[in-house]
Write a structure and sequence with these properties.
The protein is mainly beta. The chain has one domain (9-303): Jelly Rolls (Sandwich), CATH 2.60.120.10. The chain is built from three helices and 26 strands. The protein has helices at 54-57, 132-137, 296-307; strands at 28-33, 36-39, 43-47, 60-71, 82-84, 87-95, 98-102, 107-110, 115-119, 124-129, 139-149, 160-164, 170-172, 179-185, 187-188, 191-192, 201-208, 213-217, 225-230, 232-235, 240-243, 246-250, 255-260, 271-278, 286-288, 291-293. The strands form six sheets. The protein has a seven-stranded antiparallel sheet, with no helix packed on it. The chain is globular and about 60 Å long.
Length: 323
């Protein structure tokens, strides 16, 4: 699981040691297991938010773990051209390569540790597809796609695209050097990630070495979600067992605790976590298919606008629709 790494984490900035007598560690409110399914033209996903009430996810809507899969030649698949309105898609590539293109000319390729951040807002068409070389040769493919809601005031602004290279992420470690923390967006322990957000959020990919403990300071007014990409361990001071494909939704507090099991599976060198949190928007959500609005009437308008071509047109030099 490459993403972005360093040869020696001990050269990185370190999080301060938390005061164990005053820190309020968040308890685990809910622990769920992601069901497996298929997206687009048939690539495997884990639906990480399945079974979690929307008010515990706010401001997030949806999270898919794409893969991890080792494709044979001819097997890699993507999505066809499709619309979005009312939210942001954040695609984080851990292993492999994904091409993206949208109807406003945004896009490109992302690979190990890169993020493409598309603010769909008033409406856009886009496609996500494996590059021709990956289709020809096969290979590893592993990533995440997160949907971040937009507040009512930003749902109909102009679309925007951010191309975030993995090397731009803020890299830090814990006081004992037992983790590698990649801050993609927001701020963790005073270290800010490169992602520009309309809704205040934190996104971080953490590699936690076997037997190590992660004590992560977290904004008290944000929610806190920990998803396990690989490995196993415990979460919370109550030490709830957690493993790959499971999500822990936390209650209130100002820090998150995760412990990696001292012994991992032979093919898993470390525990991998995707940690999310944000300030809840607390607005009504009307969500159907590729649209996330506030009311059913706004959803109907989104479908009508798409059908009438108001969300954009597929560009002439478009990426191919892979099968």
């Amino acid at each position: 699981m490459p993403a972005i790494t360093v040869d020696d984490v001990l050269v990185l900035p370190r999080l301060p040691q938390l005061d164990q007598t005053t820190t309020k560690y968040r308890a685990v409110r809910r622990l769920t297991t992601a069901p497996s399914g298929y997206e687009g033209e048939g690539f495997p996903v884990r639906r990480a938010f399945a079974g979690v009430p929307m008010n515990e996810l706010d401001p997030f809507i949806h999270l898919d773990q794409m893969g991890e899969v080792d494709y044979a030649p001819g097997e890699p698949k993507g999505t066809p051209w499709h619309p979005h309105r009312g939210f942001e898609t954040v695609t984080y590539m851990i292993d492999g390569t994904m091409d993206h293109q949208d109807s406003l000319g945004g896009g490109g390729s992302i690979t190990n540790g890169d993020t493409q951040w598309m603010t769909a807002a008033s409406g856009i068409l886009h496609i996500e597809a494996p590059p021709e070389q990956l289709v020809t040769t096969g290979g590893l493919f592993h990533g995440l796609q997160l949907w971040v809601n937009l507040p009512r005031a930003a749902k109909m602004i102009a679309p925007k695209y951010q191309d975030i290279r993995g090397k731009e992420s803020a890299l830090l470690t814990t006081a004992d050097g037992g983790s590698l923390i990649r801050v993609i967006a927001g701020e963790v322990g005073g270290h800010a990630g490169p992602g520009s957000t309309f809704t205040p959020i934190n996104l971080a990919h953490v590699t936690l070495q076997p037997g190590a403990q992660l004590d992560l300071p977290w904004q008290p007014d944000y929610n806190a979600l920990v998803y396990v990409l690989a490995g196993r361990g415990t979460v919370g001071v109550e030490k709830r067992p957690i493993q790959i494909g499971q999500l822990a939704a936390h209650s209130a507090g100002d820090a998150i605790r995760v412990n990696a099991a001292a012994t991992q599976d032979t093919n898993i060198p470390a525990m991998e976590l995707f940690i999310m949190g944000g300030r809840p928007i607390r607005e009504p959500v009307a969500h159907y298919g590729p649209f996330v609005m506030n009311t059913q009437e706004e959803l109907k308008q989104a479908f009508e606008d798409f059908q009438k071509g108001r969300l954009g047109v597929i560009p002439a030099g478009r990426l191919p629709h892979t099968n």
